[in-house]
Design brief:
The complex is a heterodimer of chains A (321) and B (425). Chain A has 321 residues and is of the alpha+beta class. Chain A is built from 7 helices and 11 strands. Chain B contains 4 helices and 30 strands. The relative contact order of chain B is 0.09. In chain B, a hairpin with a 6-residue loop joins strand 22 and strand 23.
Amino acid sequence: MSDFTMPKIKNKQKRAEVYKQFKKEKRKAQIEERKKRKQEEKAMGDKAPPKKVPKTIENMRVPDETMVDPSNKEIQRDLALDEMSPYFNQETTPKILITTSDRPKKKTNSFCKELRKVIPNSFVKYRRGLDLKKIIPQAISRDFTDLIVINEDAGEPNGMVLCHLPNGPTAEFKLMNAKLVKELKRVGEMTEHYPEINIHNFNTRLGVTIGRMLSCLFPHRPNYRGRRVVTFHNQRDYIFFRHHRYEFKNAERVALQELGPRFILRLRSLQKGTFDSKYGMYEWIHKVNSHNLKRYFEEHSPCFFMGLEMEILLLIRIECN
Amino acid sequence: MAASVSNMSGTEENQASRIMDLPTINRQAFQHCPYDIYAGCVTGYVKGCHMSSKSHQNLNELNNVSANHEIKSMCWNDFDESVIFTGQRDGSIFRYSITNEDVVPVPIEFSGEMGIFRNIKSHDDLIISAFSKGIVKCNRVTMENSNLESQLYVDIDAGTDLYCMDHNRHFPSSILTGGKENPLKIWDISAPKEPIFSAKNVKNDWLNLTVPVWVTKAEFYFQSDKVITGTAKAHIRLYDPSTPQRRPVIDIESKETSPITALSVRPNSNFQVVAGTGKGSLVLVDLRKKSVVRNYKGVKGGVTDIKFHPVHPYFVTSSVDRHIYCFDPDVPKQAKCSSVYLYSQINCLLFSSLWSPSDTVKLYDKSDVTTENILDKNASSPHNEFDDEEDTDEVWKSLDVVQTKRKHSSSNEALHKLKRKKKKS
């Protein structure tokens, strides 16, 4: 019986039975077809038709014209002129100020403390009800290079403002699924070695700026002895943060141990200059219904999902080779 | 004395380094001239774009990487659109000749004390440049043996925190200035000591608090001495200096939450203004309705400049999101016609009058507008100065046909009505 007549059966029990039978037959046919295909492949050997690539959101992505080609001279010039270039020219050493929204609850406080452990040369300060616009000049006079503000809602950290000092830019993120070290299972203990940074999949022009801002938070020269690695992995505009220690078991195998915390970031806006949400000039701002495409991404390039852990392992292996 | 001497040597060094920094011409780019749009970028490049092929070329080449090359403002020298003046962040001005394919520095004195370059305007041999610390300079520039000579004509002190300056092409002696806590002022170049008009702040708001004065963008109204301004609080105001009233004649409070960073009056229009904000919203404001009539979609970042085409009903906007967008103000769906990605943030724009919409119509997949419609619109736009007489004749012919049709149908209806009435009676 075809699926076309099925909805016309008015008895629910009968209809369900027919549907079950239909599903069974369909499945059978699929399995047979697969068998047949495999046999054909075996018989034909090298001449077999190529395997079909499954459709994923990533490989059906709408092409973005702003995809960065690092060899483009104009983009090189643009990057050399941007506000993060002193860090990449090794003229500044990062010094980070971490603060929260007013009257933080327990989780936000401990989240900040863990961030301080992750980011070397960072300081957690109590907000004391101060305006951000008053904090920024003070931070600049004390040679801070970045300011991180963790916002919370109902005791749960839900937002992050990342402001590069002294001349901006300012990025505003939505923060999701923040997991403290305590909430994770089988975590290792953090050390004070400078971590390696793994900025992955930030490939459009906006993504490159965000990637540069994030890598600005960490010191230039990682201490490889500590084997600590901090990952910012961008997938479909969601930025996943993970913190691991790796260990080479032998020439082939690498083991990973998570050190925590975990969180996910999603960009809301990128603004020129230091924090000024009232009169600032926005380089990019998230707009509802700005495009109704689910397959349109602002920051990253296509990649197949294979699990974060796997990917980090692969990356580490590539770096080591 | 010693201090002054050291200062002198400092300026000489500066000038020497400036000579090293001079941009050179990219000859290849000039082969594709004239371009539809010219754009000045943060990276220091002057770009020419073709909207139809979505391609762009750099007109200049830069040797060293420096933020001082950032182009803050651009203007045509005259209506024939053969010469472009560009103002850089550090205050140096360059003259790009499109027909002669050369770039010449304009020798105008400036120093770091004058702040950041804000705007440049030119009229005949006069160049007007404005700086953020309130200094407006008018120089007469003459060409001598392919070198430019300049002579300071007038120096105006327009008050601190200057944000905008504009020159009136219809009354060439008047310019306007405005800024943060620096109300709109209109100056006469021949009498630069006192402004001929200075605006008065609007009345206190409903809480009896003073409304802050912060003019972010101002422009002279089309072929008149009226002035339209946009503020950081997203007000759009029309001032009329010919009346004794110093407060705005029309004050529109738009619902935008960020400052108005770009403003342009629609030429040949019935009181229509397009305004762009720092958060990337783009609105069409009708001054008679005193409200926002239309929103345009597709701009991702803050709008830096808006330019209308002098004849065709189209406008282009530049944005910090590194794109140029072209819009038709009358399309009901209000989506962009086309966009070009230019690799770096764009500060200013020039729209060539040689551009015609037939190039971009191909890109018009989504909208219902047909070529006929657009041609009709162009034909019906009044004050069509650039067309030849023969063209206008053709246009009138085409118009006649349309009108007679309409008349025909309407007259028929009227006849029918009359007949019905007669029957009834």
